[in-house]
Design goal:
Number of helices: 13
Helix content: over 70%
Structural class: mainly alpha
Radius of gyration: 23 Å
Largest sheet: 2 strands, antiparallel
Order of helices and strands: HHHHHHEHHHHHHEH
Shape: globular
């Protein structure tokens, strides 16, 4: 029999698992790219694996209850897949080659803030600077901007663990240069990583609108994966036509593709939905810095990446901006809940008063 204590601990254990899965995604992707795998081919295989995993589940659970799919909704989902998944992942892959797994995890922490800023520009969100929550949101945006700039242009002293040991024994250009990309390459990678997260943020903003017209979540996700598989294949075949680069053996490349496609896209999707159901989106978002901490140390130990002071400071600023915006959103949600409960109390008291008056009139 499940105790109350173990039940209350489950969401915390699940978010730790989720962030560990994401940290492993950053590490495995970087290791596969260090091993010479083409980033565009990798993204196609990843989306194809996710599609093959999700199609049977979607057909079994939601096919009979799914609403009809109109042509306009299909076009919206196609564009959503193109910008939010295909371009976001393709740009992310190139950016990861130019930078590090730690930077990828750090900039991912700014995604809630980027999403809020985009929603603000699209007038989905409202910013009131004179209120406490509005000021906190503004501070969060500034912190994330400062963190992104720090990651891009400042490196500072470097720290290495275990003498630059690389568990996967890959020899690439960055290894010969002490795992430190050149200044221009690093800045280009930071810009591309930020652009990837902007596309991802737009995907999150517009996804809610599209889901209103097609509420079957699993089929909606599966259709996006299928469409992005076609899109990424077209891009990959245009960029890489050497058949040798498309071969997958029983090696790290296959593990990375299967892991990112099945575990990250398939299993993590359901784990995140479960956590949001048990807690709320803010609780899930507040756990994202854990992936940064895991990636920071694991990349140094497993990939031999050198940690710079700029990466640590930039990551701290991004995390600070994240928590500032989340604190503001949480405060606003609490006020809305209080006002709703207050309205219900007033309504109940008025109904009680009317009942009392009716009783007196009858007597």
């Amino acid at each position: 029999m499940e105790t109350v204590g173990s039940s209350s601990r489950k969401p915390y254990l699940v978010v730790i698992l989720i962030q560990t899965i994401y940290a492993a995604m950053f590490l495995l992707s970087k290791a596969a790219f260090n091993g010479g795998m083409n980033t565009f081919v990798f993204v196609f295989y990843r989306q194809a694996a996710a599609t093959l995993f999700l199609v049977p589940l979607a057909l079994f659970f939601e096919w009979k209850t799914a609403p009809p799919l109109s042509f306009m909704t299909f076009c919206k989902i196609f564009l959503l897949s193109l910008f939010g998944i295909t371009l976001s992942l393709d740009i992310y892959g190139v950016a990861l080659v130019y930078t590090s797994a730690t930077l990828a995890a750090a900039i991912t922490n700014s995604l809630p803030v980027i999403t809020f800023f985009l929603a603000l520009l699209l007038r989905v969100e409202v910013l009131k600077p004179r209120t406490t929550s509005g000021l906190a949101k503004l501070v969060g945006i500034l912190f994330c901007t400062a963190g992104a700039v720090t990651l891009a242009i400042y490196k500072g002293p470097h720290f290495s663990l275990l003498g630059n040991h690389n568990l996967f024994h890959h020899h690439n250009i960055q290894e010969h240069e002490g795992h430190i990309p050149s200044g221009k390459t690093w800045i280009k990678g930071c810009f591309l990583m930020l652009m990837s997260n902007i596309f991802w943020g737009l995907w999150l903003v517009f996804q809610a609108r599209v889901m209103n017209s097609y509420p079957s979540k699993l089929l909606f996700t599966t259709l996006q994966c299928f469409l992005s598989s076609i899109q990424t294949f077209v891009i990959a075949i245009a960029v890489e036509r050497n058949p040798y680069e498309w071969k997958l053996g029983w090696n790290l490349k296959l593990v990375a593709v299967a892991y990112c496609g099945i575990v990250v896209t398939g299993i993590t999707y359901h784990l995140q939905a479960w956590v949001i159901e048990k807690k709320d989106p803010v609780f899930l978002a507040m756990s994202t810095p854990l992936a940064l901490v895991i990636t920071l140390f694991a990349s140094a130990i497993l990939l031999g990446e050198i940690i710079s002071l700029g990466s640590i400071l930039g990551g701290l600023l991004l995390v600070g901006g994240l928590y500032s915006v989340l604190w503001a959103k949480s405060g606003e949600k609490s006020k809305v809940d209080e006002s709703c409960s207050g309205a219900e109390v007033v309504k109940d008291s008025s109904q009680l008063k009317e009942t009392k008056e009716d009783f007196v009139s009858v007597v």
